Amino acid sequence: TAYGELPFLAMPHMRLLITLTVIASSASVNPEQLHLAFGSESSAILSYATLAPTTSHTLSWVSLSSPSMGGGTTPDTRPFTQDANKTWFTHTGTMSNLVPNTKYTYWLEVDGVKSANMSFMHMRQGAPYKHLIFGDLGAQCAFSVCSACTSKSPICDVSSCAANVSAGLVSETADADMLLHLGDFAYNLDTQDGEIGHQFMRNIEQLAASNYYMVSHGNHEDGSAALAHFIERFRNMPSNAVPPTFKSANGETVNSMYFSWDLGLVHYISVSTELWFGVTDNSSTTASFLSWVEKDLEAANKNRDAIPWIIMQGHRSVYCSCDGDCDDAAKIVRADIEPILFKYGVDFFINGHEHNYERSYPLYKGKSDRSNIDPKGTIYIVSGAAGNNEMHEPFTRPQPTWSAFRANTFSYSRMFVYNSSHIHWQQIATDPTQFPGTQYGQVIDDAWIVQSHHGPFDLSSAPSGEAVSVGDPHPSRQIDHWWPLLGLEQAEGQSTEQAIADFRAKSGEEAWVNKLTELREWAQSGLGGHGGMVDGVPLAMVKWEDVREDGSSDGAVFKWKESHSA
Beta strand pairing status for 403-407 and 477-479? Predict the structure, then answer.
């Protein structure tokens, strides 16, 4: 089929920066953007928004199995004043005296008007526990939410996904125990004076109003207004940080820059890796986190008989292999984080930031072991490919020996915690720009991690070699969206740069330029990425991911020959 005849859901990959559709604000006292957070063994915390002033709020809940088990509370109200020419309001309410393994119905009453009923399971008992993990999810191009989410609109709410619930995150939440978002929201929370943030939270409500939605702070929440959005929208996190509060441009409230919680046999630690890059209120700093996390991990290790697994998660990478992000920035975070992970036997470090997926073998100081049986070092996982309008991240360098699997396709992670010794990890493809529709929701990576000796790692047995050697009959695995576009055989571990170089060497420069021209023209025709205006909204020109030898791919484009320039 010619590219010009392909529908969006079968289009080949291209890196696109797409202008967001303008969302009109509609001030309403109706509660919206509901999302739950795990509070404790006996509590859950609801956060929501109203877009106009209100006078009274009541949050009520009741057990479905025992109507005598329930309660009510008055949620708080905080005005948000960082969007131009408007004020709206965030609210949080804690549902208390909850009993584990109990399903609850809850509802809101605002100014005398009752909301629809919502329900959730509090701390389901009985393994395996299912945790859904993803990073870098936008309002637009939210491909992992459901197959109906596209680049054409930032609206991807429950009505958008109603006919598309057989795959994607919407198909998983009914039996999931938690959602974990590894930073970078909406693209961005403060875009269009917060209207894109509002729409993103409306989109996510179909997942998060009935399940715990836990988060960490990303670099797209770094600016003054964006940081205020993050802090205020997610002040329902179960913060146990020192200091306990964080001051943004909108004022002082709960500190969600770092915190920890226990759920489903896992002790989770959330950290803003932006602390290493100057995002601070001068009280929550890199130093304050490092002091706090040592105490947190000391306590967690004393409790490993009850909660054996420890996972630290943030936004930026400690290890990755796609491009320049994996050099200086990763090394800065790694210098402080890696020794702590090793000292306290942290099983996984999981992050987003790179718009791809990568799973390492057990790793320490660049050395790795092939076996996932009783790992002697931390396993590092990048899962930043949930989908957003910055599109994919290319692999501009060969796959390193410590990398077990990597893919630059849209996807999210599914983690099953079976017991104290077994975790089953899967990566789920959600890429409409590469796969045919029949492959949406398919598993592309599948691994078991078995750890029977939880606790601090031992330097004498730390990984000291290379998990995958040159010429290994069982090499590391990789999916690169350029291979089918260029008609190449799969070359495991090959960088995008090398795949393109091979195509140019085999087929010639003219064939390469024709390939790029064909893809660009198809994208401009099929996605409207040709510039101009639609309904008063400017459309972006299609831009391609860069594969230059220096690896500086962020925001760059291919250098077209003059005769083929846009």
Answer: parallel
